[in-house]
Amino acid sequence: MSVEDFSHYKSPLVSRYASQEMSYNYSDGKKFSTWRRLWINLAKSQQKLGLEINDEQISEMENNVGNIDFKRAAEEEKLCRHDVMAHVHTFAAACPSAAPIIHLGATSAFVGDNTDLIVMKDAFNILLPKLARCIQRLSTFAETYKSLPCLGYMHLHITMPAQLTSVGKRACLWLQDLMTDLESFKRSRDSIRFRGVKGTTGTQTSFLALFDGDHSKVEELDRLVREMAGFDKSYLVCGQTYPRKLDIDCLSVLASMGASVHKMGVSCRGFPNC
Questions:
Q1: What integer best gives the mean pLDDT of the chain?
Q2: Which neighbouring-strand residues pair with 151?
Q3: Of 271, 249, 272, 273, which Cα lies nearest the Cα of 174?
Q4: How far is Cα of residue 104 from the mean position of the Cα atoms in its chain?
Q5: What distance in Å separates the CA atoms of residue 78 and residue 97, rounded to the nearest whole number?
Q6: How many C-beta atoms lie closer than 10 Å to residue 144's C-beta?
Q7: Which positions ≥6 away from 106 have C-beta within 8 Å?
Q8: Cα torsion for 31, 36, 41, 44, to the nearest 10°?
Q9: Is-contact 266 173, C-beta < 8 A?
């Protein structure tokens, strides 16, 4: 590794604790390639609905999804002071014939917010099988040690032993919490909707202009892009961004699982005193 690799701050939350797939999920590579896929989905949908976009332009975009010149994007951002426009220009440089139709009618939140929603959904899909495996292994542990006695304490205080219980039974308490977390993860993931093709402030005005005021085409555009992104639903009403209540919900279920794991850790620390 070069000296350059150590010249910028790196979070130990990533280097020490994040899995390879979760680290990639929140990486710049995932973020900006997703932006490009969204632009391609938008162009394909606009072409299908009659805008003058040809197959060669779309093929050029598809062939350059992963061809991201991050150095050029940084230089462009210094000039325009706008991350999305910097990447529009960078993508356009790689796809000169497609330059006029990249980001056509869209606003920054089209790529920014929709990508955040995709990343959050993908993050839950990474976590869910891991949590399910944890539950399966913990259930085996509970079955194995169901008859191994240990002291149960009142208020988790070592000076207040109450009566005998078993290690397996204690593990079942943890399992019950984790099963609740699993269901909460599923509910939270399934509640994530696509922001969709909504324009600058959620009014879709720019897309109505592109389609000469044809509301049915704008609605169909929203549906086509949503389905290409892998979502069943999109927000019917939004402003510039998707509703931030969603962020609170996602953080809440993650914090709840953290509380479950903390409870397990505290209980395990008490076992030597049993």
A1: 92
A2: 164
A3: 271
A4: 25
A5: 25
A6: 12
A7: 39, 42, 197, 199, 206
A8: 180
A9: no
Taking the C-alpha atoms of 156, 158, 159 and 164 in order, what is their torsion angle to the nearest 10 degrees?
80
C-alpha distances (whole Å) from 177 to each of 26, 180, 249, 258 are 27, 5, 18, 11
Q: Which of 65, 81, 61 is nearest to 73 (CA)?
A: 81
Neighbouring CB atoms inside 10 A of 225's CB total: 24
The C-alpha atoms of residue 135 and residue 27 are separated, in whole angstroms, by 28
Gap between the Cα atoms of 204 and 105, Å rounded? 9
For residues 176 and 264, what is the distance between their CA atoms, to the nearest angstrom?
11
List helix spans (H) across 16-54. 20-25, 28-48
Collect all residues with Cβ–Cβ distance below 8 Å to 200 and sequence separation of at least 6.
Answer: 107, 109, 206, 240
Q: Which residue has the tokens 């600058």?
A: 200
* Sequence-separated (6 or more) residues with CB below 8 Å from residue 73: 32, 86, 87, 90
Give the integer Cα–Cα distance in Å for 56 and 81: 31
Torsion angles phi and psi, residue 166, rounded to 5: -135, 155
Report, in angstroms and rounded to the nearest whole number, the Rg of the chain calculated over CA atoms. 25
- Cα gap 76→88, rounded to integer Å: 9
pLDDT in tens, 81-126: 999 999 999 999 999 999 999 999 999 999 999 999 999 999 999 9
CB count within 10 Å of CB 253 equals 20
The whole-model pTM stands at: 0.91
